[in-house]
């Protein structure tokens, strides 16, 4: 059988009937080995084993933009911010009539195929998911294009010179012309490594086919954060979706129709993912590192060095400069320090304690108690303990990469 995954995805997009074929093909055998005869992969050159394919596996509001930046700033890395956004946007409306498990399978199959293509710098493949469909390989609809340094630089964008090191995401989108995917593809090929950040794959087990793909050299960085912090951050950020949680916080009474799955999904996914990762299955050997957001916030430079050691890459000056510029204490009120100061970001990592009520925390601790324990996040036993910031609830715990 030939490598017809591209066709499979396009057909899946085109018709519900054919989706079932797609589902079978995508799940029965996640991908076929193309013993030398795989014309779909001209870009996987003999040197591909030397290329590192970095995957940041995270969830929303877990600090993944920060980790993404630590990779994005490296001059040898081509970085994309959440390319799976487009898959979800395109597939979800078409899948709504199927069962949840079926949808999940189609999503995951499509996601793995897209990730595989992107690691090979095939950015045209992404075009099938972008709406409106790009014409002449040009689009201004790539999600968070400005978060990708290589897409805001020459030769992809002429608006900024080599001296503009810290191009603001909004400025990039404003000043660069529509994205020429051909140039983006070339920029990707020119970089030694490719890093992708995703928040739309529930757990590491879902990526096994990708991790085991012999054409890839995947290194997973699983980013976790205290679920209580994630909840608090989501309540602030996704105001509509988490409206009932805000009502709970404001009134002290839990709304009867509160969607508890918004919390349980985070904890269940963390638990299964982290349990898999830390049980060291052979297929993850050398390919898995668990990072707690709080450790990174407390000690960004040291932790980033550990991450680069694990990746087997030298950390370059750009990365170090970026950490200094974005995490060091600064009293300039005008400074745009999105990620707070070193001291502040360490405190920030626990600022949810001042924002959530004790009964919300207590509830979270009950639902998530296993994963809190596993990751070294201490449960608080009273409102006083919750609000007493002189005692951290993040326990010292070392997670060494699985080498
Ligand atoms: C592989 O890398 C070597 C050394 O960097 C280079 O000379 C060669 O052209 C590369 N081969 C391919 C197919 O890219
Ligand atoms: C795409 O390119 C063709 C040939 O250069 C041109 O005729 C056409 O107008 C272009 N389409 C758009 C939407 O720019
Ligand atoms: C995109 O860039 C390529 C490579 O430089 C060029 O050949 C092509 O004409 C560009 N496309 C558009 C629509 O400008
Ligand atoms: C906070 O905890 C510390 C250490 O247990 C304790 O000494 C201090 O009195 C507490 N502060 C408040 C306001 O309860």
From TrEMBL:
Cellular localization per UniProt: Golgi apparatus membrane
**Which keywords annotate this record?**
Carbohydrate metabolism, Glycoprotein, Golgi apparatus, Membrane, Signal, Signal-anchor, Transferase, Transmembrane, Transmembrane helix
The protein's Enzyme Commission number: 2.8.2.-
Annotated SUPFAM superfamilies: P-loop containing nucleoside triphosphate hydrolases (SSF52540)
Record's GO cellular component terms: Golgi membrane
Main localization is: Golgi
Instruction: Give the enzyme's main class according to its UniProt record, as a single word.
Output: transferase
Gene Ontology biological process: carbohydrate metabolic process; keratan sulfate proteoglycan metabolic process; N-acetylglucosamine metabolic process; sulfur compound metabolic process
Start and end residues of each Sulfotransferase domain: 52-375
Signal sequence residues: 1-22
Q: Name one Pfam family in it.
A: Sulfotransfer_1
Tell me if Transmembrane is a UniProt keyword of this record. yes
Annotated InterPro entries: Carbohydrate_sulfotransferase (IPR016469), Gal/GlcNAc/GalNAc_ST (IPR051135), P-loop_NTPase (IPR027417), Sulfotransferase_dom (IPR000863)
Q: Which family does it belong to?
A: Belongs to the sulfotransferase 1 family. Gal/GlcNAc/GalNAc subfamily.
Name of the featured protein? Sulfotransferase
**Species of provenance:** Cynoglossus semilaevis (Tongue sole)
């Amino acid at each position: 059988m030939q490598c017809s995954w591209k066709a499979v995805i396009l057909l899946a997009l085109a018709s519900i009937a054919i989706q079932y074929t797609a589902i079978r093909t995508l799940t029965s055998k996640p991908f076929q080995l193309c013993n030398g005869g795989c014309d779909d992969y001209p870009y996987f050159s003999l040197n591909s084993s030397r290329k590192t394919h970095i995957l940041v596996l995270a969830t929303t509001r877990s600090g993944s933009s920060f980790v993404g930046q630590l990779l994005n700033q490296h001059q040898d890395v081509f970085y994309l911010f959440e390319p799976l956004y487009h898959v979800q946007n395109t597939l979800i409306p078409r899948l709504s009539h199927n069962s949840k498990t079926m949808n999940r399978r189609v999503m995951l199959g499509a996601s793995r195929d897209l990730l595989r293509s992107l690691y090979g710098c095939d950015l045209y493949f992404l075009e099938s998911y972008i709406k409106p469909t790009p014409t002449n390989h040009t689009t201004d609809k790539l999600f968070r294009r400005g978060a990708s340094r290589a897409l805001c630089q020459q030769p992809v964008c002429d608006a900024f010179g080599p001296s503009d090191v810290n191009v603001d995401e909004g400025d990039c989108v404003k000043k660069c012309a529509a994205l020429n995917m051909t140039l983006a593809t070339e920029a990707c090929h020119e970089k030694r490594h490719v890093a992708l950040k995703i928040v739309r794959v529930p757990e590491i087990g879902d990526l096994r086919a990708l991790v085991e793909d012999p054409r890839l050299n995947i290194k997973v960085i699983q980013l976790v954060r205290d679920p209580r912090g994630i909840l608090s951050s989501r309540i602030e950020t996704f105001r509509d979706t988490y409206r009932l949680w805000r009502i709970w916080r404001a009134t002290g009474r839990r709304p009867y129709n509160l969607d508890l799955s918004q919390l349980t999904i985070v904890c269940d996914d963390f638990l299964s993912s982290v349990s898999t990762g830390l049980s060291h299955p052979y297929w993850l050997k050398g390919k898995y590192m668990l990072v707690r957001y709080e450790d990174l916030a407390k000690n960004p430079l040291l932790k980033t060095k550990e991450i680069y050691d694990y990746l087997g890459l030298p950390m370059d000056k750009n990365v170090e400069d970026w950490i200094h510029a974005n995490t060091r204490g600064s009293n300039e009120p005008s400074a745009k320090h999105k990620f707070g100061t070193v001291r502040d970001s360490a405190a920030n990592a626990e600022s949810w304690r001042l924002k959530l009520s004790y009964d919300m925390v207590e509830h979270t601790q009950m639902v998530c108690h296993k994963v809190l324990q596993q990751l070294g996040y201490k449960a608080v036993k009273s409102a006083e303990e919750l609000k007493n910031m002189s005692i951290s609830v993040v326990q010292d715990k070392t997670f060494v990469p699985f080498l």
